[in-house]
Amino acid sequence: VNVVANILFIVKLKYGVSGIFAANAVSSAFALLILSPVIVRNFRPQVRKTTLFELLRFGLPYVPSGLAAVIMDLVDRFILQRLTDYTTTGIYSAGYKLGMFMALFVAAFRFAWHPFFLSVAKQENAKQIYSKVLNYFVFACSMVFLLISFFIDEIVRLRIFGFTLFGVSYWSSTRIVPVIMLSYLMYGIYVNFLIGIYLKKKTHVLPFITGTAAVINVLFNFLLIPQMGMMGAAWATLIAYFSMAAILYFVVQRWYYISYEWRKLTLLVFLSAAAFFLQRHLSFLLPPIPRLLLVLMLPVGLWIFGFFEPSAKRRILNYLAFWKR
Fold first, then answer.
1. Cα–Cα distances in angstroms (integers) from residue 216 to residues 33, 112, 158, 162, 244, in the given order
2. Burial per residue of 223-248, b for 16 or more beta-carbon CB atoms within 10 angstroms, e otherwise
3. In principle, which of 81, 84, 141, 243 could form an S-S bond with 88, CB 3.0–4.6 Å?
4. Is residue 265 domain-resident?
5. If we measure between CA atoms, which residue out of 114, 108, 115, 90 comes closest to residue 144?
6. Under 8 Å CB-to-CB from 78, ≥6 apart: which residues?
7. How far is 172 from 194, CA to CA, in rounded Å?
8. Which residue has the higher pLDDT, 236 or 98?
9. Domain stop point among 233, 260, 287
10. Which residues contact 244 (CB under 8 A, 6 or more apart)?
11. Which of 260, 288, 317 is the last residue of a domain?
């Protein structure tokens, strides 16, 4: 239900990140409906003021935080329409939808991440696990980013029953897709950093963080759109989500410090950026197969430079040996 709802709200209805919250609400309501007979049989009305106060203190900050997230997700198109025209806004919206490939991946991760990090929170090596998860999350997102970026022109021109995914007039929207996907990647990193907020019950800071990011988004939209058009709106979105993740990181580390492996993450970013810019400059020379091989060079490079720990390498080799049989 959650996956279907995410596809509906993000891809079909164009809700963006706010669609993730809407999908979670729908899936939670569905779960409540299914479990309602069990709840009714076992429910005994009782009000515990201390518990109620704790629940409200933890949950209420999500209301203004959610509103700020909606503003971040929608304000770019509103400002773009005011500062340019409907045609530009329509092309931008089409490109934004293509960026939802990353949004769906992040939504799937977020759905599994919360119960996972809560389940291992009491383990002695919990913080090491969280650090490793961020490494592999960013690696998986980088693979998605490169695959979609390298083949986005083929995707929009793909004919299904005689129709392309977008009309010819919208094909120019593909240039904003990498920036939008990076924005959702930054949102996924933000989700990774939420661990300390949950474990230390510090949700009161979320409205400040998302509100600040929303203000940054509005300011940079007004600054960049007159200079760069729809690319300015895309960059404003990326700057806002990067700011949101960065602010959360520095705030939450005071309460729940995690030693992330920044050397490995820097290596991952460097190799991904190198592959991306190489493809951009040689795209007219590279047919599909070499482009795919260039994507696969990312894990090869990471393997050579020590991104994967020995235990992960053994699992990968065992997996490959199994398929060779």
1. 39, 29, 37, 43, 9
2. ebbeeebbbbbbbbbbbbbbbbbbbb
3. 84
4. no
5. 108
6. none
7. 36
8. 236
9. 260
10. 72, 186, 187, 190, 209, 210, 212, 213
11. 260
Q: Are residues 198 and 230 in the same domain?
A: yes
Residue 303 has pLDDT above 60, yes or no: yes
Domain that holds residue 285: 276-325
Which range (85-99, 152-166, 167-181, 231-245) has the least confidence?
A: 152-166
Do 291 and 196 belong to one domain?
no
Q: What percent of the chain has pLDDT over 90?
A: 45
Residues 95, 134: one domain?
A: yes
Give yes or no for a contact between 21 and 118, defined as CB atoms under 8 angstroms apart: no
Q: Is residue 163 part of a domain?
A: yes
Residues 139 and 13 in one domain: yes
CA geometry: angle 174, 178, 182, nearest 5 deg: 150
* Mean pLDDT score of the chain: 86
What single-letter amino acid sits at 140?
A
Judge whether 40 lies within some domain. no
Q: In sequence order, what are the residues at sequence separation of 6 or more whose Cβ sits closer than 8 angstroms to the Cβ of residue 245?
A: 186, 187, 189, 190, 193
Q: How many domains does the structure of the chain reveal?
A: 2
- Does pLDDT of 26 surpass 90? no
Predicted local confidence at residue 209, as pLDDT? 93
Instruction: Look at residue 259 and tell me whether its pLDDT is greater than 70.
Output: yes
Question: Are 73 and 17 spatial neighbours (Cβ–Cβ below 8 Å)?
Answer: yes
Considering the domain architecture, whether residues 159 and 250 belong to the same structural domain is answered as yes
Assess if residue 284 is contained within a domain.
yes
The residues with which 309 forms a beta bridge, in sequence order, are: none
The β-bridge relationship of strands 159-160 and 163-164 is: antiparallel
Burial degree of 288 (CB within 10 A; 0-12, 13-18, 19+): exposed
Same domain, 319 and 223: no
Confidence of residue 283 (pLDDT cuts 50, 70, 90): low
